[in-house]
Amino acid sequence: MALAWLPARLVGRRAQTATARSLVFTVPGWPGHLPGQHVDVRLTADDGYQAVRSYSLAAPADDDRLELGVQAVSGGEVSPYLADQLPPGERVEVRGPLGNWFVWRPEQTEPVLSVAGGSGVVPLMAMIRAHRSAGSRSLFQLVYSVRGPEDVWYREELEDGGPFLDVRFLHTRRSPHGAARASGRITAADLREPTARLDPVSPVYVCGSTGFVETVGDLLVELFAGRGKEPATIRTEHFG
Fold it and tell me: How far apart are CA 13 and CA 71, in angstroms?
């Protein structure tokens, strides 16, 4: 059965980076969702023209409130408007939740590895928040690749994640002063220790641009080959 479009009213906006925003909507009748799922957002112009885009949910289910992560793309038709121009109180339509494979459930007890590139951290943030809310004592790892320190989403929350969240920031172009790792793209060396801390059935979540996800997927498969860990535990979500 096709999912219905539901009216969603913008009630909050917070800057994450110079071009990234967290948007909070209220959606009466929202059925709930799992961490890692996403929604379609539909905008309708006065002349009837409609545009639909998909955005990840950045937080676990909270009654009728949804938090989305939106990265404004230069020259984009929808993302710049949502990020900075949609007025508070204005309504759009959402459809979802969508995606049942790229999800984390509170009953999971295995150590987790998540790998994000840029705005790919959004659905992983929903998992991290759900993990914290559930009081889970299993290890949740995040390897987070960004161009520079100014491109990190949810910085305060990630840096104060608690004893069961291990976050590693990788900078591809501009490393902060005193960083132990030189700037550069993600390599097998960046994933070797995090993968060694996993169980054979531990899930691995990878989200980012298509090129990033393909690169990380290949690195993980190579690392798993020597450890008897199944590549089928790798779950990916990509954009672009």
Answer: 13
Q: Counting Cβ atoms within 10 Å, is residue 138 exposed (0-12), middle (13-18) or buried (19+)?
A: middle
The rounded Cα 135 to chain-centroid distance in angstroms is 20
Q: Cα(164)–Cα(151) distance, rounded to whole angstroms?
A: 24
Which pTM was predicted?
A: 0.95
Structure tokens at 23: 């948007």
Does residue 211 share a domain with residue 116?
Answer: yes
Is residue 103, in this structure, part of any structural domain at all?
Answer: no
Place of tokens 């990916």: 236
E-assigned strand segments in the chain: 6-15, 20-26, 38-44, 50-56, 65-71, 91-98, 112-117, 140-146, 165-171, 204-209, 234-239
Two tokens, residue 121: 């951290």
pLDDT in tens, 153-209: 999 999 987 889 999 999 999 988 888 888 999 999 999 999 999 999 999 999 999
Q: Is the pLDDT of residue 239 over 80?
A: yes
Q: What is the CATH number of the domain that holds 143?
A: 3.40.50.80
Any bridge partners for residue 145, and if so which?
Answer: 117, 170
- Say how many Å lie between the first and final Cα of the chain, rounded: 28
pLDDT tens digit sequence for 69-102: 999 999 999 999 999 999 999 999 999 999 999 9
Domains in the chain: how many in total? 2
Whether residue 107 lies inside any domain: the answer is: no
